Structure formats: structure tokens, C-alpha cells
Amino acid sequence: xxxxxxxxxxxxxxxxxxxxxxxxxxxxxxxxxxxxxxxxxxxxxxxxxxxxxxxxxxxxxxxxxxxxxxxxxxxxxxxxxxxxxxxxxxxxxxxxxxxxxxxxxxxxxxxxxxxxx
Length: 117
Known about the structure:
Layout: E1 2-3, E2 6-7, H1 20-23, H2 34-59, H3 67-78, H4 102-116
Antiparallel strand pairs: 1-2
């Protein structure tokens, strides 16, 4: 896989493989390696965590188990990195479920988590 003119090398274990179609939606133009991508994603996640924590303290744990909360959190975590952040996945990857099954599988997982608390 290539970022700009640089080859990222093999995908790290557990990483969702990126293809050229994915890279079109990458926002930072200075990302040239998988290591760069990991850094910008981690920084973006770290900016989102305090707000999510504040909301959980303010509203309690219930909103965390809501489907809309997950997409909002995803947008906040990755919105500076990927154009598609906060939207449902549109293509199959080698991990997870098929895109068409995401809403139902997510709602079932969230319900299971809510019932366990």
C-alpha cells in the first residue's frame, strides 16, 4: 500500500488493511506512512476522550449504549483524519461484520452491554 510516494510496508497485525480507495478520504496531507497515520489517529482519539468522559459523568452510562452515541464518538475520534468518520462502513473488511449487518449487530452488542451494567 502507498501513501503519496511512500510505501507503508506490511500491515500490522489486527490493522484494517487500507487500499487506494481509503486513502482518498484521508484528510491530513502530510501523512506518508502507516506510522504517521497511527500518530494522527491517536492524537485525534485523545482529543475526543475528555468530552466522552464528561458526557458519561454528566449523563450517566446510559447514553454510551445508544447507537447514535457510537457514531458521534467515532466522528469526534476520527473526524480530523478521515472524511467518512462517524458514518457507517460501506465496504467489507477482513474484520467485523458485513456493512449491511452493522446496525443490527451494533444495537445487539450495545444492548448486551447495557444489560450487563
